[in-house]
Amino acid sequence: MAALFKLEVHTPYRRFFAGEVEALTLTLSDGEITVYAKHSFFTAPAAACVLRVKDKTGRWKEAFIAEGLLEVKSHNTILLTDAAEWPDEIDRERAEEAKKRAEETINQSTFKFESINAEAALKRAKLRLRVAASNLR
């Protein structure tokens, strides 16, 4: 059996996940990383991405996370994020509407900050839709 470590994922509104896991994969600001038990300690900003968690049984579970902060320590790993949703929690219709709004804003924006914000919103909407679709498989 693979070594396990304690993982906690928190949003401003709830404790999204707490438990022992075999691995955690997510995207940091400088690329994707997989964390295993006894990983070297670090703190880094997390990008909006598909969070993948390998549970005690060896099954991978996916969730959407927004931007946040990951801290890997000797006794546990903590991810603080603005939002986190399991596939069955994602409102597909709302995500589709957010995607459409973001695309319209990108096409019509005249200011750079509008484009940057709309591109981030578009990325989050696409990630939510990808995670929601994984629930249908």
Envelope shape: globular
- How would you state the average pLDDT, rounded? 93
Tell me the CATH superfamily of the largest domain.
Answer: F0F1 ATP synthase delta/epsilon subunit, N-terminal
SSE string, helix = H, strand = E? EEEEEEEEEHH
Number of domains: 2
Distance between termini?
27 Å
Rg for CA atoms: 16 Å
Q: Could you name the ranges where pLDDT drops below 50 across 5 or more consecutive residues?
A: none
Report helical residue fraction: 25-40%
Largest sheet: 9 strands, mixed
Description:
With 137 residues, the chain is α+β, with helices and mostly antiparallel strands. The protein folds into 2 domains: 5-85, ATP Synthase, domain 1 (Sandwich); 88-134, Single alpha-helices involved in coiled-coils or other helix-helix interfaces. Helix content is 29%, strand content 41%. The protein contains 2 helices and 9 strands, in the order βββββββββαα. The protein has helices at residues 92-108, 112-134, and strands at residues 5-10, 15-28, 31-36, 42-46, 49-55, 60-65, 68-72, 77-81, 84-85. Strands 1, 2, 3, 4, 5, 6, 7, 8 and 9 form a 9-stranded mixed beta sheet that branches. Strand 1 and strand 2 (15-28) form a beta hairpin. Helix 1 (92-108) packs antiparallel against helix 2.
Keywords:
2 domains; single chain; Single alpha-helices involved in coiled-coils or other helix-helix interfaces; 41% strand; 137 residues; 9-stranded mixed sheet; alpha+beta; ATP Synthase, domain 1; 2 helices; globular
